[in-house]
Structure formats: structure tokens, C-alpha cells
């Protein structure tokens, strides 16, 4: 129904042929913008309502009672119910670290929160399929747990800025929220996140439409085709300077896969954009010192590239 309405809009209102580059690009742009914002609104509302049961104080208490891999896994899983970009995750990272949680747990959360969430899983499934979406979530959580564990074993607490560890966390009584309060919170989260990401969604869809209709497939595959060993590192290198939520990278990913780029290369690009964006690294530099930041960056970038190569090698099992 939605596809037909968009087709009618492009052909009858704008008078464009869908087979033309301009008409095809406009159809891609309108359809993906509508699809992403509908899914984004519905999913963020649901996830925020669930998140209202896990305020930072309660999350800290849950994590503080755990140790070892169980704590890291729980930190990573809690990151999946926080629909934040990499920059938005850093204030929570500061709060968790200042409350005395181990670095292993807080970094597992920091890696997982922008990289994997329930909304991204459903959006990935809508663009590709459920096998790829579930595999993406699993490897993202594994990367968060392994990355946090390695950082914890490095014992680099001395490289956390003093203002973080000396910051006093207020112990607030648990607020008894009514159903109306939770629904209002979820509504406000939808509005806040939509205002923050709408431009990146439009830019991402615009880039995706250009790739889909204007750049020949042979040009793209010659640069970052699945058969080239450098495609994954190049995708990561291109992704790191960018800043966008996963919602803005999905249209680009969809267009690249349609042009024959390997699914692992595309996922590596998405992971680099969401987990290692340059603005988030600049913010994190204010919180941790260079050796710890370098270790975090190195672990995540190596993990992303390994995941990219893994998906490229075994993508036939998921498609």
C-alpha cells in the first residue's frame, strides 16, 4: 500500500518516470524516509517505555552486584535497551564509572549502547533479513563483552580523568512512576531522539538514493567489492570520521548491498560510524587519558574488522 502511494506521488504528482535516475532516486528517498521514521517512532516509544524501568541508579545497583563475565554481559545487554548514539552514551559511562563500577563493565556498556539496540535489530531485519539482524546483534554483544573484558584486564584505572572518579553520585530514592508517567517519558524520548537524528536520517537516505541510482555498480564493486581484502579496512576508515545513528546509516547500507558490496563490509562501515564516530572519541578524550583511549579504539576497530571479514566469508549462510 505504502509503495503504491509513493509510486503514485512520484509519477502523478511530480510527473517523473520511476525508471529514470531522478524518479528512482526520489522514490527511494520518500519511501525510506517514511519507513524509517515510522519504525523509529514506534520502536523508540516501546524501548523507552521499557527503559523507564531501568533508571541509571537501578542499573548501577544491578551491575554493582555482579562480577566477571556475568557483569560484562549484563552491561552489554543493558546497552541494547538504551537507544543512544555514541556521544549520548558517554554521560552514562561517566555516571557508571564515578559510582565505582569496574572499567570492564562500563566499557562493555559504552561499546554496546550505540552499536546494538532493539530498534536497530528490527530495522536491520526490515532492510535485510532476520538472520543478518540477529547475527549482527550477537556479534555486537560479543564485541562489547570481549572489549570490556580486555580493557578490564589491562588495569588502566589510573588513565581515567580524576574528575570522573571523584564525582559524587547522589543516591536518589526510586521514583514510583505511573503508567501515564512512563508513557509520557516514552513520548518525550521519541520527540527528543527524532529531533536529534532527523537530519542524519535525511542525509543518510539522500546518500543511499544517490548510490542506488547514480553510481554504477561496477564502480562501487571495483572500490569496495567483496573480493578485495582492503574493502573492510577502507569501509572502517571511511566510517570513523562520520557521525550518525544507525538509523542514518541503514539506507546507505541498503544501497551498497544492492550494488554488490559484501554484507561484512557494509556492517563494518555501520559499526565504525556508530561506535567510533570522531565526535564521540573527542568527547571520550575529555574523560579518559590517551593510553586508555588508544586501547579502546584499537580493540574496537580490530573487532569490527574481524566481524566484517567473518560476515563476508560466511554471508552465504545468512542470505
Automatic annotation (TrEMBL):
Domain of life: Bacteria
Keyword Membrane attached: yes
InterPro entries per UniProt: DUF318, UPF0718_permease
Cellular component, GO, one term: plasma membrane
Annotated localization: Cell membrane
Membrane topology field: Multi-pass membrane protein
TM region(s), chain numbering: 28-50, 71-94, 100-125, 132-151, 197-215, 227-244, 256-278, 290-311
Swiss-Prot/TrEMBL keywords: Cell membrane, Membrane, Transmembrane, Transmembrane helix
Entry-linked PANTHER family: PERMEASE RV2963-RELATED
The family this protein is said to belong to: Belongs to the UPF0718 family.
Protein name: Permease
Organism: Stutzerimonas zhaodongensis
Amino acid at each position: 500500500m505504502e509503495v503504491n502511494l509513493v509510486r503514485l506521488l512520484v509519477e502523478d504528482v511530480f510527473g517523473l518516470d520511476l525508471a529514470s535516475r531522478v524518479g528512482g532516486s526520489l522514490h527511494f528517498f520518500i519511501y525510506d524516509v517514511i519507513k524509517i521514521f515510522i519504525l523509529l517512532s514506534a520502536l523508540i516509544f516501546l524501548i523507552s517505555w521499557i527503559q523507564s524501568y531501568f533508571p541509571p541508579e537501578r542499573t548501577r545497583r544491578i551491575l554493582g552486584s555482579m562480577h566477571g563475565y556475568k557483569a560484562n554481559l549484563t552491561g552489554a545487554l543493558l546497552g541494547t535497551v538504551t537507544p543512544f548514539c555514541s556521544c549520548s552514551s558517554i554521560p552514562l559511562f561517566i555516571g557508571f564509572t564515578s559510582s565505582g563500577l569496574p572499567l570492564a563493565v562500563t566499557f562493555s556498556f559504552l561499546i554496546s549502547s550505540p552499536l546494538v539496540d532493539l530498534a536497530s535489530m528490527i530495522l536491520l531485519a526490515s532492510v535485510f533479513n532476520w538472520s543478518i539482524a540477529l547475527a549482527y546483534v550477537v556479534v555486537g554483544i560479543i564485541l562489547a563483552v570481549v572489549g570490556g573484558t580486555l580493557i578490564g584486564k589491562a588495569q588502566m584505572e589510573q588513565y581515567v580523568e580524576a574528575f570522573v572518579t571523584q564525582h559524587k553520585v547522589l543516591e536518589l530514592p526510586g521514583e514510583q512512576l505511573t503508567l501515564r508517567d512512563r508513557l509520557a517519558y516514552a513520548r518525550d524520548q521519541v520527540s527528543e531522539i527524532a529531533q536529534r537524528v532527523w537530519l542524519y536520517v535525511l542525509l543518510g537516505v539522500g546518500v543511499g538514493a544517490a548510490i542506488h541510482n547514480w553510481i554504477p555498480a561496477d564502480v562501487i564493486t571495483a572500490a569496495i567489492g567483496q573480493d578485495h581484502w582492503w574493502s573492510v579496512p577502507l569501509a572502517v576508515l571511511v566510517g570513523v570520521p562520520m557521525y550518525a545513528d544507525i538509523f542514518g546509516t541503514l539506507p546507505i547500507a541498503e544501497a551498497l548491498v544492492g550494488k554488490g558490496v559484501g554484507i561484512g563490509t557494509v556492517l563494518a562501515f555501520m559499526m565504525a560510524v556508530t561506535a567510533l564516530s570522531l565526535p564521540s572519541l573527542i568527547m571520550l578524550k575529555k574523560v579518559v587519558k590517551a593510553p586508555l583511549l588508544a586501547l579502546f579504539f584499537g580493540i574496537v576497530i580490530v573487532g569490527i574488522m574481524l566481524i566484517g571479514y567473518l560476515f563476508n566469508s560466511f554471508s552465504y549462510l545468512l542470505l
